[in-house]
Amino acid sequence: MKALTHRQAQDASLAFSHLSRGDAVAALALARPLAAEAPDAPDAQHLLALSLLASGDADGAAPAFEAALRLAPAQPAIFANYGRGLRRFGRRAEAAAVWRRMAAALPGDPTARLEAGVAALEAGDIAAALVDLREAVRLAPQSVRALHGLGSALRDADALAEADDVFHRAIALEPGNAALWASLGGVLRLRGRSEAAVAAYAQARACGADDPALRESEVGALIDALQIDRAFERANALVTDHPDHAGGHATLAELRWEYGPDAGRDAALAPFRAAVAARPQQRELALSLVSLLIETKQAEEALDRLAELRREADDPTLVAMQANAFEQLGRHDEAARAYAEADRHLGGRDVHFVNAYVRHLLKAGDVVAAARRAEAALALAPDHQETWAYLATAWRLTGDAREDWLCGFDALAGLMPVDVPRGFTSMPAFLAELQEALDALHQARSEPVRQSVRGGSQTPGRLFGRADARIVALESALTATIDRFIARLPKDGTHPFLRRAARSVRYTGSWSVKLWRSGRHANHFHSEGWMSSAFYVALPPSVAQGAAGGRDAGALQLGQPPVELGLDLAPRRVIHPVEGHLALFPSYLWHGTVPFDDESPRITVAFDMLPKA
């Protein structure tokens, strides 16, 4: 390792001066010859790496950083600039590896482990992020940034109780930190503690935060807490104060759809349409509206808007959206051309697009191609529930015996009696009290936009975690039932459902559905679960008597694809509901319900689960 000569040091100082002014070209003009002239000087190699980064050449900078580190293996500034540079260019996994090398070279340095954890979290490697951030907190227990990072990683790992505790520890150290209050609010929403989440978001605003994303989250928490009037007030203020924020307009539209006094999709989306008309240059706003139009089956309007957007700037995402809209309208030839065009750009990297293409191929009758593409999608995301749902359908249509292996309609699904929750004398007495608790939460006038409910309402936010003794008792009783069900499952390390089985589960989403007369669930799957469910709280007479009377009114149907696919396939299994019983099945199984004709509602509690580590 050599030091720079006086003249070389002067050149380096001038190059750093150019970098500080943002003149990467001038800096690089000095750095290249200096690095060639002084190959054994770590400062010269470091300068070259920084100059290359500043000029946008991350690939060229990496060898220069490595050369500098070979010459000065314990120099924290080199590691730090290397890691930050890679992260700035979106190479987060590589950045995390560099920071871990710094941690190995400089044991006990909390900065290295903190930065490694933050980069790993951004790269989606939650397990690695937790290891790094736990160590960072151990080394620097008073570091608010380390605690914030750890809380965020715990949230992403669905370790919500621990995340709650960590954020409270950080807030105790820095109570005026608005970002901490906002992060705590997000965790509290996920825990079902909506009132506390509202208070946390209010505290974030009191600490000076007022960005549109925070305000959008606050509206969501107000809806969860059933403070609907305040939610409308805050949502309207959000779109007034931030008219370009697409998320705010989408939130307001969906709020109007479910809770608004004016029924119908036109009334719900009218302000969103007006906002797009007033801001024709705001592409994100227009795209968000198109997405909502497709969700609400208004494909003609979506196509008109997409054609206009493509005239301004084309991209494969717009083509994929057009394909979806053509599909909704039954314009199959145009859909086929659009899917083929988008596939050239998205087919090898976007699992959601690939699954949409598989859906199109199934609908078009090209079953072999659908199966082939679904299997390719599994290479992108092996546990993607939508892919397995479509693949099961393709296997059924081709007569492939793997459909029965995958779906296991008898072995992997069932109806289980639930024990009377502790503190209650009988199941009917408990269900009566539980229905009272749930009725208070069912305040929506219409079903949610993006869910399977048709003719009914769904409770907002997460049900489990609410401070109601009846809901707490239900969760405990359900967990015991689920554990018994898992214990009797067969063992198969190659099966996409069975290989993930653990001794118990953790709940992801949880909600209640109240179906009104003629209400039903459209056939669907659950993307966020491993195993899904329906606990029967109250059944109308025709549903409760269905099994005895040979009728399927209100029954749960498994294995029947959505009607939109046009496949005319019968259910593989029909489960007749029983009050106080719990239906369980893999989340990728198509499931829906049969309409019923009664005045009294059909009330369930449903939830998704992931295996508990």
Description:
It is a single chain. It is built from 28 helices and nine strands. Helix content is 59%, strand content 10%. The protein has 613 residues and is α+β, with helices and mostly antiparallel strands.
Low-confidence runs: none
- The secondary-structure class comes to alpha+beta
User: How far is it from the N-terminal to the C-terminal residue, by CA?
Assistant: 48 Å
Strand content: 5-15%
Number of helices: 28
Largest sheet descriptor: 6 strands, antiparallel
Strand adjacency order, main sheet: 1-7-4-9-3-2
**What is the number of E strands?**
9
Kindly report the average pLDDT value.
94
Give the radius of gyration: 28 Å
Helix content: 55-70%
Query: In one word, what is the shape?
Result: globular
Topology:
Layout: H1 6-20, H2 24-37, H3 42-54, H4 58-71, H5 76-88, H6 92-105, H7 110-123, H8 126-139, H9 144-156, H10 160-173, H11 178-190, H12 194-206, H13 212-224, H14 228-241, H15 246-259, H16 265-278, H17 283-295, H18 299-312, H19 316-328, H20 332-346, H21 351-364, H22 367-380, H23 385-398, H24 402-407, E1 414-417, H25 427-439, E2 453-458, H26 469-487, E3 505-521, E4 531-538, H27 541-544, H28 546-549, E5 556-558, E6 573-575, E7 581-586, E8 591-593, E9 602-611
Antiparallel strand pairs: 1-7, 2-3, 3-9, 4-7, 4-9, 5-6, 5-8
